[in-house]
Amino acid sequence: MRPIYRNLAGLIAFLGVWEAAVRLGLINDQYVPPASVVLTRTVELLGQEDFLRDVIASMLAWAIAMLAAIGIAVPAGLLLGSLPGLRTATTAIVEFLRPIPSVALIPLAILVIGGGPESKIALAIYASVWPILYNTIYAFTEIDPLLIDTARSCGAKRGRVLASVALPHAAPFVFTGIRMSAAVALILVVSTEFIAGASTGIGRFILDATSGGGRMDLVLAGTIVAGLLGYLVNDGLERLGGRLFRWHAATTTEAV
């Protein structure tokens, strides 16, 4: 079977089990509506202008956060990766900041930045920087020293070695970090919208559905849309990486 058929078969089986469990009374339909009801609400939402505006607001914040994270993490990773002394000096700071859950910073972000789009973008940037940064640094540690020595023996200066040897080698790893950060950024955007009570966005829609009479069908429908967006983003980036770096195995492996 082709992968797409296996994926569809697994999805249909999951939806069937979900539907049967609710219809047989194994799950209270007040908390988890049948899959058929949730899918119907999902289709209805995709035809509503207000909900589409929420989707656009979330994806716009996601895109801004990803561009900013790439602009920060890639140069920083190249700098730290090419200067071992600087990397060693900043290790303690990086290792202190990296494990901090971004969701835990939402109250601080609201106090410092406010509850507008800036807070969700800032938190998404913070969470997305680390996978890109670490993959970029890791790429430098995996460069074969023979390649660098060969370039230098041919008279290449440090900048030339960086551009002609280090960057092509690091590109697939950087792209893998970007693909991982794409999902992280979307999670942070929607989570911040939900917890901070943003004015627009998928998270705000889910929050309103939760508080407005407990419409779990709308809550799950909004969640499905968010998950579908995440799947499409990851699949699109994975396909793009496969085309750009099919010569390198880094795009088919998980980041360190």
From TrEMBL:
Keywords, ordered alphabetically: Cell membrane, Membrane, Transmembrane, Transmembrane helix, Transport
Keyword Protein transport: no
Protein name: Nitrate ABC transporter permease
Membrane-topology descriptor: Multi-pass membrane protein
InterPro entries: MetI-like, MetI-like_sf
CDD domains: TM_PBP2
Predominant localisation class: membrane
Species of provenance: Prauserella muralis
Recorded coiled-coil stretches: none
